[in-house]
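Example 3.2
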Amino acid sequence: QVQLVESGGGLVQAGGSLRLSCRASRSMSSINAMGWYRQAPGKQRELVAAITSGGITNYADSVKGRFTISRDNAKNTVNLQMDSLKPEDTAVYYCNAKLMILLREYDYWGQGTQVTVSS
């Protein structure tokens, strides 16, 4: 198992920046991939960005060129740098970790952090 603790959400004006961090309770080397998802009111949870243990990244089209995901293995942390924020980025952001246990993949989630972008 893994526990995930998020930090860094808040309120920002459109065009501003925020940095989200997610700290895992175990070594990153044992986690297949980590990522950030978001859920806006009345909408389904969607992938924002993900990074594999090998450093391969994947972004939603809506955030490409504005958001950057990175990992700090020494601190067991994954960060999401969000620049040029738009009101449509407003959502609860959740950290996700995917662990492979006995050939089966399991998802673990953080508690979520609110990001609000005002126009």
